[in-house]
């Protein structure tokens, strides 16, 4: 099988601690959301082929800001991981105010990618996020991460279940070039909407 594809030319631009500080630009934008250990940072590094573009933390919950990455045809905004218990109550309160604001007010948002660990896919926090986005009619792609950690049979089974309930989704592993290619294709599709 041939794996000729172009990695995303991603550059880190800036972080914002709250919605009011978010970068103003004219390009389409997609948001990456998911639980703290779902593998968002690893995915950013994989699709850009840059090992240290997004910081992969051993302590989940370290992404405490909106992080803007510029691509050739738009922006990816990496969100704080949700659902991690060691984040302070004040931080959680801040996020619960800032995150919905982003989804309500961001005019150039063309889609959201929800990253969820295939071994415990679409937990309650993921489903809540999906429903909030669905109510706002924002296109959503569910990415089942760490698919290399389960058998091919289990990956196919989970994919079928998630696909049936939440629509088109992807099985993804940073060790699988084909899944990296598929995610890059899907991101480019979202950014061209």
Give your account of this protein's structure.
The protein is of the alpha/beta class. The protein has a single domain (11-191), classed as P-loop containing nucleotide triphosphate hydrolases (Rossmann fold). Helix content is 35%, strand content 21%. The longest helix is centred in the middle third of the chain and has 17 residues, at 89-105.
Question: Briefly, what is this?
Answer:
With 193 residues, the protein is α/β, with parallel strands linked by helices. It has helices spanning 40-48, 89-105, 124-135, 152-166, 177-191, and strands spanning 11-16, 29-34, 66-71, 74-78, 109-117, 140-145, 169-171. The mean pLDDT is 88.
Jot down its keywords:
alpha/beta; seven-stranded mixed beta sheet; 193 residues; 5 helices
What is this structure's SSE topology?
Blueprint: E1 11-16, E2 29-34, H1 40-48, E3 66-71, E4 74-78, H2 89-105, E5 109-117, H3 124-135, E6 140-145, H4 152-166, E7 169-171, H5 177-191
Parallel strand pairs: 2-4, 2-5, 5-6, 6-7
Antiparallel strand pairs: 1-3, 3-4
**How large is the share of residues in beta strands?**
15-25%
Number of helices: 5
Task: Please trace the helix and strand order, writing H or E for each element.
Answer: EEHEEHEHEHEH
CATH fold-level assignment: Rossmann fold
Helix proportion of residues, in percent? 25-40%
In CATH, the architecture is 3-Layer(aba) Sandwich
Give the N-to-C terminal Cα separation. 29 Å
């Amino acid at each position: 099988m041939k794996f000729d594809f172009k990695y995303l030319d991603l550059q880190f631009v800036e972080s914002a601690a709250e919605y009011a500080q978010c970068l103003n630009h004219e390009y389409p934008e997609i948001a990456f959301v998911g639980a703290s250990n779902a593998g968002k940072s690893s995915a950013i590094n994989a699709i850009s082929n840059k090992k240290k573009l997004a910081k992969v933390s051993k302590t989940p919950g370290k992404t405490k800001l909106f992080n803007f990455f510029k691509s050739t045809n738009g922006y990816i905004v990496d969100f704080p991981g949700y659902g991690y218990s060691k984040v302070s109550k004040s931080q959680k309160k801040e996020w619960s105010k800032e995150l919905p604001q982003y989804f309500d007010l961001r005019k150039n948002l063309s889609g959201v990618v929800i990253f969820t660990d295939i071994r415990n896919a679409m937990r309650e926090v993921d489903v809540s996020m999906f429903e909030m986005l669905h109510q706002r009619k924002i296109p959503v792609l569910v990415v089942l991460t760490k698919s290399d950690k389960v058998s091919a049979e289990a990956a196919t089974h989970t994919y079928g279940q998630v696909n049936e309930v939440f629509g088109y989704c992807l099985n993804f592993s940073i060790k699988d070039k084909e899944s990296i290619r598929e995610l890059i294709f899907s991101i480019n599709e979202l950014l061209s909407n």
